[in-house]
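re: ur msg from earlier - yeah i can do the zinc ion complex, just paste it... oh wait u already did. ok heres what im feeding in:
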Amino acid sequence: MTRLLLGAHVDQTNPIIEAQARDADLVQFFLGDPQGWKGPVVAYEDGAAGLAAAACDAGVDLYVHAPYVINVATTNNRIRIPSRKLLQQTVNMAAKIGARGVIVHGGHVLKDDDPEVGFDNWRKCIDQLEMPCPVLIENTAGGDNAMARRLERLERLWAALGKANGGDTVGFCLDTCHFHAGGEELATVVERVKAITGRIDLVHANDSQDGFDSGRDRHANLGAGKIAEDDLVAVVKAAGAPVVVETPGLVEGQGADIAWLRARLGTA
Ligand SMILES: [Zn+2]
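and the outut:
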């Protein structure tokens, strides 16, 4: 098999150094405050063009995780409108650093809302979004009215995206902790997702501190949580996409998780 690219979610100040410290092929990071609305910034001292050049020289692929505050599905105008703006700004900045994709959570509607309104809000968002860098929607662990926790919802989300201008370019980021905690069996999830989306662009390989269908989003180092080791490895192999560990322990913990995967993928 071809060698899968493996990496980690790292600090944004110098993602290249962080990649090299973990023996990583790729890195994911935030552009600015993940909990804020201020808009993306490039923390790297040589700026966006400098980071793009350094990543190219080092052979490290870059991925950007959009801020957590973004929720383009919500019926709340005061969140949805700024979410669209912030997503556009993030995609534009990600393109400037040569990122391979922008990962954004599927979001949710309010408890008593019809989820169909949320899917249609996604359609409208993508309709208006310019995507010089691909957008990858990630499944989430919790919430009773989430857009992308369970596959029944993912199917309806993808149907809505199919009606949007550019909707066919939207990708999917599969998080193992989120599907486990969200209540989808990992052993078969890759084929079931691909039947809906036709693609998996990135895998977030995380173990889970919590049990199946707990709805809780607490990542653990690989092999140290509640997910069966065979399931974690099987998802990564079946997806065949680049992998990011979003696990604790910085260089030491994440470096060990990358090595853990390499050993089990037979690509050490
Ligand atoms: Zn994730």
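cool cool. The longest strand covers residues 61-65. ping me if u need the other ligands too
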